[in-house]
Amino acid sequence: MPIKKLIVYFVFIGVIFNCKNKPHEIVTSQIIPIPQNQETVEGQFVLNSNTGIEYDKAFNISANFLKSFIEHSSSIILKENNAIALIKDETINNDEGYKLHITPSNIEIHAKTDRGAFYAIQTIRQLLPVAFEDGSFNKEEVSIPCIKIEDEPRFKYRGMHLDVGRHMYSVAFIKKYIDALAMLKMNTFHWHLTEDQGWRIEIKKYPKLQEIAAYRDETLVGHYSDQPHQFDGKKYGGFYTQNEIKDIVAYANTRNITIIPEIEMPGHSQAAIAAYPELGCTGEQVEVAKKWGVFEEVYCTKDETFQFLENVLDEVITLFPSEYIHIGGDEAPKTHWKTCKDCQQRIKEEGLKDEHELQNYFITRIEKYLNSKGRQIIGWDEILEGGLAPNATVMSWRGINGAVEAAKQRHNVVMTPTSHCYFDYYQSENDNEPLAIGGYLPLEKVYNFNPIPEELSTEESKFVLGAQGNIWTEYMPTQEQVEYMAFPRMLAMSEVVWSNPEQKNYSDFVNRVEHFNKRLDALGINYANHLYEVEGKLISDENLSYQLNTLTQGKQIRYTIDGSEPNNKSNVYVKPIKINMSMIIKAAVFNKDEKLGSNFSETINLHKAVGKKISINKEPHKAYSGSGAKGLINGVSGSDSRYGDKEWLGFWGDDIEITIDLGETKEISSIETRFHNGQGQWIYAPKEIKIEFDDETETLHIPDTKDVLVNISLDKNISTRFIKLKIPNYGIIPEGKQGSGNNAWTFIDEIIIN
Ligand code: ACM
Ligand code: ZN
After folding, report:
1. Which architecture characterizes domain 37-151 according to CATH?
2. Is the shortest distance between the CB of 381 and ligand 1 below 6 Å?
3. Is 648 touching ligand 1 by the criterion CB < 6 Å?
């Protein structure tokens, strides 16, 4: 009988009775990532010390994982019989797919490969009580709900990245991270091993990489934009020995995780140049970087550098069996190349047009070397500069343009756009979040990510191998902080890359996350919990009203409109709140009398433009379209610290013109708005704006500033019907800044007219 496309949830958590009429802990099927097809079947399988496992020899990894998972965490010892059978099945299409059938008498797993069987085991794992995760299961037997699942991944590249250059973490933590990936059916760990601030992989041929490049004298405290810079005065660093790396690679193999090592070139290599100054263009002694950012110390293109890199890569490929070697390629300023006689000589000899083609020469030469060793390169999307190396795979991070360009050239791509995949960004609007690099990437936005760009045809989209969440660790000195930033967004990413879009539903996902959090607790994983927050939305039908919402089920929202803090006596929210004057709405989520999560507060400002007509000559960027143009005059301002919320609009490189039509000529006295100026995220306030009224124009010059918010206001008593704001883009980001050479973003908030 074919399995119906049916999503079934075991929503009753509690105690039910098995066939022997004995109470058992019931387990809920709230699997993350959600399987492609699942159907509940009545009954349960009782697992105890009579249960055995029988498996095809090809399924060693999976069988061993299940045995040790059960035996390490309970007193149950699996025998050898076919109660749990792992069956090799060539009829399963996808190498990583599986069928799982749990009946009262047995558990049958069908898979073509050990990898598929492994994912069936991870599914079973999530059907077991969380006590199995921390070894606290102390009963003789456990009931597993009967279920029939047919499952396979949507994408074949399902990854998480971790930067150990800015901060590094213990071998035990790297294994814990790998374990989490495997639990979520991810298959790739992109290990970012070299940076300006530290070289983290032992290379035996070059001992100074260990002695010098692995350590920085001290570390920047706070943000780059906090001037003057402060340092902690503490030497920081270390590296992973080749033995440790071998151990980690072997461990990852038992979790079906491929580790892709990244050795950055030609940029982000200041630490290596600090150890061996001759690798740079100037030969001058530099230090291992103590600040974050983009540095001008890049590898010189003379032959000696390539000799060094080939020797390094020889050791790297001995340690890492992955097909792919990540060679970085991002953020390599060309400043030194422009004045270096070796680099200019190279340009001449090779008949190159400029330094961008020199970057292509660099990457292509390394590609040729790695191809000769049977490996392929993957690099950040700057490797498209000056032409793409013939066999390269592109990791698209500066938006999706790199992916579109590469896929159209029939190159494989992996999607990691900052807008949806940078887990170093803030995940909540709360001001009490731990310090992060900036940005705003809430769980829902990750969840709703579609790795296939709309610009690609069906044929071209086949070049999209999958997607990856990135963890850059400038602001993550501890493993607890890495976990806080990774979870729960990694859960969302796992569903992005594994599950079918038709299967996905955010509010259902959130309820599964709430359940999954108990598993994370048992695993000792420090996750962020923003599930109990209130979200608000202004509704402008005929009358204005304000809607409150919270994500998890069975909770209440209580609210106030008099500025007081909500408590367990405040009004319970049942329907949208009428807005007939400016007001402050405060709210929080309650479970009976207990307040969960943090307070929500929204100021509604009924100014003269609210609900009037507005148009913009350019569409906001798809990744930052907020509530659209009308969100700029909806009476609600964006967050002070998170530009990617529902109120801010983002434009990338465009000059914009915003026209507000008040419907009739009105007396106005002031116009205010504000721009985000988060330069670390490539966002710049404009240098000037023009404001046109019906009969007059004003030009406002905006001084250069490092302030993250730039307020603009014009006091002017004038009669006008139309108000037009002409906002030219800041332009190209200057040398020495994050993202230099790229277009700046413009982010604008509410336009307040009084
Ligand atoms: C990157 O974030 N520089 C790839
Ligand atoms: Zn040079």
Report:
1. 2-Layer Sandwich (3.30)
2. no
3. no
